[in-house]
Design goal:
The termini are far apart. The chain folds into two domains: about 10-160, 5'-nuclease (Rossmann fold); about 210-220 and about 250-415, no CATH class. It is built from eleven helices and 14 strands. It is an alpha/beta fold and about 425 residues long.
C-alpha cells in the first residue's frame, strides 16, 4: 500500500497577524501571503477565534488619520466571508473556563529570574491560547511577545513562517530537512470548509469526529470496520532476482490468470464496491433522519441555523450532535469527546436510529470527563476521550477504575430558554 496521507498542519492566527496583513507590513507580508496561499490550496489550515473579528477593527492608517476607509473595511470583511479559508471558533463557555485555567496557571508560574518578573497574561490572549488548545493546533502564530507562555500550552508559539514544500519526485531522493507536501483533504461533506461562523469538526482531517480507536482496557465497542484498516504488505518484485528462461515460461503458462478470469475478478470487485457504497448511503440517510428528528424536537418553533456538518445554533445555544445506530454486544454506544465538542454549549448523543433516545449534555459535564487523568484516551489521537453510553442504566463510562457519569437527567432533555 502507498504511504499514508500526511497530517495537514493546523495553525492558529492571533489578531495581530491579520492586522499585519491588512496594513501590509513589508517584512511580514511574504510569509503571511505564502501561508494564506497554502491554506487556499489545502496544504495547511488557519484557525482563529470570533474574538478576532472585534480585534481586527481598523488599520493603523485609519487610526492615525482619524478617517475610516471603506476599502480597508471591505478587505477586513473578506477575511471572515463564508468563502474565506479561515476557520473561526466561537468563544464558548468551555473556552472561557480553559482561558481562566491558563490565567491561574500563569499566576503560579515560577519567576524567570529574581530580576525578571513574569509577564502578565491578558484575558484576551488567554482566550486565544485556550481556543488554540481546544482545537489542537500545531503552532500558534503571533507577532506579540507571547513566547513566554509556551510553557502553559502543548504547542509552539512562533511568528508566521512559510514552509518550503518539497514536491514528491520518484527519481529524486527525499530530503528529510524539507517537509513533503501533504495530501489535500478529501472532497467530502465531513471535511469541507464550513462557513466562517463556526469551526468544522476536527475530525475532519484531524479526525475529531472519526470513529475512535478503542483503548486496550476497553470503554466502548471497537469500530465494525476496524479489520478493514489492517492489510498485509505485499513484497515488491526484486528486479535483481534471476530466473531461468524455462522457469519464467512456466510461470507465464501456468501461474498467470487468463483474461476471462481477470475480468470475472474485476466484476466481483465492482459489485462489492457498489454494494458497500449503497450500504454507506443508506446509513448516511438513517443518521441524517435521526439527527433531524432530534433537532426539530430541540428547536420547536425557534429558528435553527446549521454552521457545519454536526453543529447547529438553536436560539442562543450552540449544539454539537452525533448519532450511533448500532450498539456493541454489551448494549453500549461509543462516542468521543474532542476539542470541537468542547467548543459547543451542549453535546447531543443520539443512541437510536429513530431518534427517540438521546442525551443533551452540558459542556461543563463533558469538560469534567475529558480532563479526568484516568480518562480513556484514543490510541491514535491523544485529544480524544472515549465514552460508552449505556441507555439501560443512563450512564457514560469514561475512565479507568469503572468511572461512570450518571446522565439520566439529560435523557431526552430540552434546551433551556
Amino acid at each position: 500500500m502507498g504511504e499514508a496521507a500526511k497530517k495537514i498542519p493546523r495553525y492558529y492566527w492571533d489578531a495581530n497577524v491579520f492586522l499585519s496583513f491588512i496594513e501590509g507590513h513589508a517584512d511580514r507580508i511574504p510569509n503571511i501571503e505564502a501561508i494564506l496561499a497554502d491554506c487556499e490550496e489545502g496544504r495547511v489550515e488557519i484557525w482563529s477565534s470570533h474574538l478576532t473579528i472585534a480585534e481586527v477593527a481598523f488599520a493603523k492608517a485609519e487610526k492615525d488619520a482619524k478617517i475610516l476607509d471603506t476599502e480597508i473595511e471591505k478587505k477586513i470583511d473578506e477575511l471572515w466571508h463564508p468563502e474565506s479559508p479561515i476557520k473561526l471558533v466561537e468563544v464558548s463557555q468551555g473556552i472561557c473556563v480553559e482561558a481562566r485555567n491558563l490565567l491561574r496557571k500563569n499566576m503560579l508560574r515560577p519567576e524567570i529570574s529574581p530580576r525578571q518578573k513574569n509577564k502578565s497574561l491578558k484575558a484576551a490572549d488567554a482566550i486565544h491560547l485556550a481556543t488554540a488548545q481546544m482545537i489542537g493546533v500545531d503552532e500558534f502564530h503571533t507577532y506579540d511577545k507571547l513566547k513566554e507562555f509556551e510553557c502553559l500550552v502543548p504547542f509552539k508559539i512562533e511568528e508566521p513562517t512559510a514552509v518550503q514544500w518539497l514536491l514528491p519526485s520518484p527519481n529524486q531522493p527525499k530530503d528529510a530537512s524539507v517537509p513533503s507536501l501533504p495530501a489535500p483533504p478529501p472532497d467530502d461533506a465531513s471535511t469541507g470548509t464550513p462557513p466562517a461562523a463556526a469551526p468544522t469538526d476536527i475530525a475532519s482531517p484531524s479526525a475529531a469526529d472519526a470513529t475512535p480507536q478503542i483503548p486496550k482496557d476497553g470503554a466502548a465497542a471497537p469500530p465494525e470496520d476496524a479489520a478493514s484498516q489492517e492489510s498485509s504488505t505485499e513484497k515488491p518484485n526484486d528486479p535483481n532476482t534471476s530466473q531461468p528462461a524455462d522457469a519464467i515460461s512456466a510461470i507465464r503458462d501456468i501461474g498467470a490468470p487468463n483474461s476471462d478470469d481477470a475480468k470475472d475478478d474485476t466484476d466481483k470487485t465492482v459489485v462489492k464496491d457498489e454494494g458497500k457504497e449503497i450500504e454507506d448511503k443508506e446509513e448516511e440517510i438513517e443518521v441524517a433522519g435521526a439527527i433531524e428528528r432530534v433537532r426539530k424536537r430541540l428547536a420547536g418553533d425557534s429558528p435553527c441555523e446549521q454552521f457545519a456538518r454536526h453543529i447547529w445554533r438553536i436560539r442562543n445555544h450552540r449544539i454539537h450532535m452525533k448519532m450511533k445506530s448500532n450498539a456493541s454486544t454489551s448494549g453500549q454506544f461509543p462516542f468521543n469527546i474532542n476539542p470541537t465538542v468542547l467548543s459547543a454549549d451542549f453535546e447531543v448523543w443520539v443512541c437510536s436510529s429513530e431518534g427517540d433516545i438521546y442525551y443533551l449534555v452540558p459542556v461543563a459535564v463533558l469538560q469534567s470527563m475529558y480532563n479526568d487523568p484516568d480518562a480513556y484516551r484514543d490510541n491514535t489521537h491523544d485529544n480524544l476521550t472515549i465514552v460508552s453510553i449505556d441507555p439501560k442504566s443512563d450512564t457514560a463510562a469514561y475512565a479507568r477504575g469503572g468511572k461512570k457519569e450518571a446522565i439520566g437527567e439529560f435523557r431526552c432533555a430540552m434546551l433551556p430558554d
